[in-house]
Design brief:
Layout lengths: L12 H10 L3 H20 L11 E7 L2 E6 L6 H7 L22 H9 E9 L4 E6 L1 H5 L8 E4 L7 E9 L1 H6 L7 H12 L1 H5 L3 E4 L2 E2 L7 E4 L17 E7 L2 E9 L6 H5 L5 H6 L1 E6 L2 E7 L21 E8 L20 H24 L13 E4 L1 H8 L5 E2 L6 E4 L21 H12 L6 H16 L5
Parallel strand pairs: 1-7, 12-14
Antiparallel strand pairs: 1-2, 2-6, 3-4, 3-6, 4-5, 7-8, 9-15, 10-11, 10-17, 11-14, 12-13, 16-17
Helix pairs in contact: 1-4, 2-4
Bound molecules: adenosine-5'-diphosphate and magnesium ion (MG).
């Protein structure tokens, strides 16, 4: 005879909470809270237009005794409230309807548990005003999965959410101590890159009162159709453009030069041009969130197929992939939503075009490598354009339908080509710096000259003496 009984398989709260926070970095946990603010805006205001996030903001306070994030992004409405505190989405994942990134129903709770042992979530939306508290006792109580909620009188304005964590874990408290840890300044920097596109679209983020500035993305674009002259044959600086709709995801790619090609000196002194190097590479954004930032690895196609690996020569290259979908499950995101799912079919098909774009500009760079003097002609009438300007300007480009991927089209720029070096020879050599300084001072009465100036002058002097005036 068999006795039919049951035995508990319920998770302990402690185990559950520990598992939840184990694999997430503090920074990412906090970014999840900010993502919810943006989702709030998209839910209330739709998120369309040039500055969809204008007038919306989040203010973060972080110090050893408190974490708080306060936004004016609409609050948690009644129909979202029931699910908002469940860990995981009871319906297995909302199939969207708005271009948000909320997917798993875990971000807010996970962030709270990562930060501390006591928290309050206060929200004011047009149809409900409430406060929910999480206490250390609740965290210890194995049987109770219900959270206390107080409903307050409804309000007519100031809709938004405030999450405060007044008791931080000792780890987090130490990291929020600016005297002993650089987490806060690191976090501000990371926000400034991660939230660039959201800030550029009008959102304001403050950390301990300091407004975070964006790190703009610009590409050089010639206003003239063709650059032509002694130094170059026809062509002009234009970006590579790709756009279309792939499996329910809108895709846009812009790639080109974010700055003039590096000089030999810059390539040699790579340390000094760190900044430019940091600006180079591929950036991918999904529903306005940056998921890949200025990448220079195989992830974005460098060193794959016929594309060269990234190196100092290519610090001028910058590419941007903009993905958007009303259904976040269609985006090629990793489960942390802070990375691209490199094996996604959608991403692999887009990557072909990214490689094509990279290739276009690496071969352009290679062609011009040996013509530093003539390169200024390239930048003739070229000026930096923001993403919004790029979108507007390239709208009228003559695009070609892509045969490889249905529903997409692309623009391959016809870039300027250097006129062949008709009979010139390049001389390059190294000499002791002390001798360089001595000679420069003799010739120019200063050592503040470039090696090229000195090289050309000495060559001309010797030429005149030994061969004569004519060149
Ligand atoms: N700052 C906020 N503004 C508006 N709604 C919010 C905010 N924070 C959380 N929410 C609501 O709480 C829900 C749960 O958030 P979260 O745990 O991050 O899961 P997810 O974002 O995946 O749904 C969100 O879906 C949203 O409805
Ligand atoms: Mg979320």
């Amino acid at each position: 005879m068999t006795a039919s009984n049951t035995i508990s398989a319920a998770p302990t709260k402690r185990f559950f909470v520990e598992m939840l926070v184990r694999d997430i970095a503090l920074e990412d946990a906090i970014l999840d809270l900010l993502d919810n603010c943006i989702d709030g805006v998209v839910r209330t205001a739709g998120g369309a237009g040039d500055e969809p996030y204008k007038n919306f903001e989040a203010r973060i306070t972080m110090n050893p005794g408190l974490f708080e994030i306060k936004d004016n992004c609409g609050g948690i409405p009644k129909d979202a409230l029931e699910k908002a505190f469940r860990m995981g989405r009871p319906d297995g994942g909302d199939k969207g309807g708005a271009a948000t990134v909320g997917m798993y129903g875990i971000g807010m709770k996970r962030a709270i548990f990562k930060l501390g042992t006591e928290a309050k979530v206060a929200s004011r939306s047009p149809d409900v005003n409430f406060e929910v508290g999480i206490s250390p006792e609740w965290l210890k109580n194995e049987d109770n999965w219900q959270l206390p909620i107080s409903y307050l009188e409804e309000v007519k304005s100031d809709f938004g959410t405030t999450i405060s964590v007044p008791t931080l874990t000792s780890d987090v408290s130490a990291r929020f101590d600016e005297a002993n840890d650089n987490f806060i300044s690191y976090f501000k920097n990371s926000l400034s890159s991660n939230y660039t596109f959201i800030i550029l679209k009008g959102f304001k983020v403050f950390v301990n009162g300091e407004q975070i500035k964006p790190q703009p993305f610009n590409l050089l674009v010639s206003s003239e159709e063709d650059v032509e002259g002694d130094k170059v044959t026809k062509g002009s600086l234009k970006p590579y453009v790709f756009r279309g709709e792939v499996d329910g995801v809108s895709v846009q790619i812009f790639a080109g030069l974010s700055r003039p090609l590096p000089t030999d000196e810059e390539i040699e002194k790579e340390e000094e041009v760190r900044q430019s190097r940091d600006d180079a590479g591929w950036t991918i954004i999904c529903n306005d969130r940056i998921v890949v930032y200025r990448d220079k690895t195989r992830l974005t196609g460098w060193g794959e197929a016929s594309v060269p690996s990234f190196h100092g020569q290519f610090i001028s290259f910058s590419g941007l992939v903009i993905l958007k979908s009303d259904d976040p499950w269609k985006l090629p995101l990793t489960t942390t939503k802070r990375g691209i799912d490199a094996s996604s079919e959608l991403y692999l098909s887009i990557k072909d075009f990214m490689r094509e774009a990279t290739k276009t500009f690496t071969s352009f760079t290679n062609k011009w490598k040996r013509n530093p003097e003539e390169r200024t002609a390239l930048y003739k009438a070229a000026s930096p354009m923001s993403v919004a300007q790029l979108q507007a300007t390239t709208a009228s480009y003559d695009m070609t339908k892509s045969k490889k991927l249905e529903g997409t089209e692309r623009y391959m720029p016809l870039l300027p080509v250097p006129k062949t070096d008709n009979g010139t020879v390049r001389i390059s050599y190294a000499r002791p710096r002390a001798q360089f300084v001595k000679l420069a001072e003799k010739l120019f009465e200063t050592s503040e000259v470039t090696p090229r100036d000195l090289g050309e002058t000495t060559f001309e002097l010797v030429y005149e003496q030994l061969v004569g005036g004519s060149k």
